[in-house]
Description:
By secondary structure, this protein is α/β, with parallel strands linked by helices. It is 44% helix and 17% strand. The chain is globular.
Amino acid sequence: MSSISRRGVVAAAGLAVPAVSQAAQTAARRVAVLGDSITTGYGLPQSQALPAALQSELARLGAPARVLGAGVDGSTTAGGAARVDRAAPKGTAVCVVALGGNDLLTGAEPRAVARNLDLIVRRLKARGVTVVLAGVRVPSLIGGDYARAFNGAFAEVARTHDVIFLPDLLEGVALNPRLNQRDGIHPNAAGVAVIARRLAPLVARALRAG
Length: 210
């Protein structure tokens, strides 16, 4: 989180949680979020971005962790594969892989997306990092063979490597004007809070398993 108040609470994404001592923060396990502009908090202050909101939710669940933002605006699965080792530095216990939105926007070949995700997960697991894979689902209004193949790429990698899987990072948030900024793509603070609440239990499970 960006700051700790003297009254012993921190606020991230509108949620107040007990403050954590400096010693506890130092000892907390590290969680990296390898993503794109959805995870960097595009258009939002860092205190309302996903890393801060996720850290708050984990603390609320009794699974304190230091969440490191490793997102890059515009990143694709290929970009994530190229920087995965830097994104999850030594000492990272869990890495949330949340890529694919820009692949979808550019019509990337689903088999290429699967290959990139496979490489990312293999590199992380080889280093002993527990993976939480967050998928991206093609909007139902598109449908067709491409949608099935694209959606299936994430499920295939999760199944192959037996990793914790969230099929759709933006479930309940995508296309909801109340939960997105004016561009209709990037979540607002309320939308980020929804994502963090759905993601945190999976990350907490990964921390326990790691």
